Amino acid sequence: MPWNWELPDWPQFSYHLDQIALKERQFLLEVDTACAFLKNIGDQEYSRFVVEILSLEGLESARIEGEFLDRESLQSSIKQHFSLRASPNQETNKESRMAKLLCDVYQSFDQPLTQEMLFRWHFELFNNQSNIDCGRYRTHIEPMQIVSHRYGSSKVFFEAPSSVKVPNEMAAFINWFNSTNALLSILGKAAIAHVYFESIHPFKDGNGRIGRVLVEKVLSQGIGHPVLIAVSKVLEKQKKEYYTAIERCNRTLEIDHWIAFFADVILQAQSQSMNLLCFLIEKSKLLTALSGRLNPRQEKVLLRMFAEGLSGFQGGLSADNYIVIAKTSRATATRDLADLVHKRALVKTGELRHTRYWLNLPIRINPLL
Questions:
Q1: How far is it, in rounded angstroms, from Cα 22 to Cα 24?
Q2: 304 exposure class (CB count in 10 Å sphere: 0-12, 13-18, 19+)
Q3: How far apart are CA 241 and CA 133, in angstroms?
Q4: Most buried of 133, 157, 224, 317, CB within 10 angstroms?
């Protein structure tokens, strides 16, 4: 049975965009809402939001491929790229490479896609790795296969076009990418761009990560500014469904199921982005209201809680957590926590050894994402 790129109509994918018309309108409405929020925050909060979103996308996109990056190091690299104050001695090589890719995509969102741009992204992602052909399409003569090894046997999930075909395939892809803005919905083009690129699989490694930043580029070009959502965060949480959905495209050009799945992913990512934006705004409000009213221990613990992001401490902050973070006694921790509750910085739940403390933020922006 032929692969999708071997079918006579390749790369003419078959789809019905009317199935995602309501999702498209929802996406655009949420874009307008986010823009309204962003107009009412200061430069510092906006910069924090950009760093948080870019680092979240980088962390989760790498995690999908089985690579784990250090969050603080990645954020430090992104901050340095934007000339923001960063923690010293945090940057490492792999986080620095990912940061360069993310920032490049962010800053060049409105530029047409080119082969040179793709090569630059690939080079930024794999610079100094001797086992990778950095900054160029694959050239190996053996088949480019995605293989699963389980229980002593192997299964070929997909085989991409041979390396010799890649330059022509990518030239056609780039032409399609740059000439279809007016012909497709934003969500539809993002979904198609991803499956189209992954079907060609033009690089020896890094196709998933580059394919996902192409989604960000499509969305950003569609709305006219950087989209600032972390699609990879949702894809990592739904990795099994993600792989299953894209595998269904391997031998067909009919991709309605894929477009529906991917549109939902984008909407979920957009919702999480709004939650994060609200979280950062409420964080700024709370810290401003408490300015000058906290002792150094309380301030250290609150900042540590905020650093955990939307999900917070798993199971809430305990008195033992406070003692470790603040490096203080149990009696002092008890007084400090009671004072933070009195000042409405924290909310207390439970009793005795089950007592836990939570940031006092609106419930709608504090889900476990």
A1: 5
A2: middle
A3: 30
A4: 317
Six-digit token string for 244: 């299953």
Q: Are 322 and 336 in contact (CB under 8 A)?
A: yes
Q: How far is CA 278 from the centre of its chain?
A: 17
**CA 94 – CA 74 distance, rounded (Å):** 9
Per-residue tokens: 365: 């922006």
Helix, strand, coil percentages for the chain (3-state, nearest 5): 60, 5, 35
Q: What is the dihedral of CA 191, 196, 197, 201, to 10 degrees?
A: 130
Which residues face 150 on adjacent strands?
A: 153
Residue whose pair of structure tokens reads 């086992």 in the numeric block: 131
- The pLDDT tens digits of the residues spanning 267-285 come to 999 999 998 888 888 888 8
Amino acid (one-letter) located at 194:
H
Strands (E) in 51-152, as ranges, are 145-150
Kind and range of the H or E run holding 10 = none
Residue corresponding to tokens 């610079």: 127
**pLDDT at position 278:** 86
Please provide the size of the chain in residues. 369
Mean pLDDT over 101-107 rounds to 96
pTM: 0.86
Grade residue 202 by pLDDT with cuts at 50, 70 and 90.
very high
User: Can you tell me the distance from the alpha carbon of 365 to that of 169, in angstroms, rounded to the nearest whole number?
Assistant: 44
Reduce the DSSP state of residue 273 to 3 states and report it: helix
| 101, 73 contact by CB (below 8 A) | no
Kind and range of the H or E run holding 32: helix 21-39
Domains contained in the chain, CATH given: 4-278 (1.10.3290.10), 293-365 (1.10.10.10)
Question: What is the C-alpha to C-alpha distance for residues 71 and 344, in angstroms, rounded to an integer?
Answer: 29
Q: Tell me the residue ranges of DSSP E strands in 151-189.
A: 153-159
Q: Are 35 and 274 in contact (CB under 8 A)?
A: no
Give tens-digit pLDDT for 114-158. 999 999 999 999 986 767 778 999 999 998 888 876 656 678 889
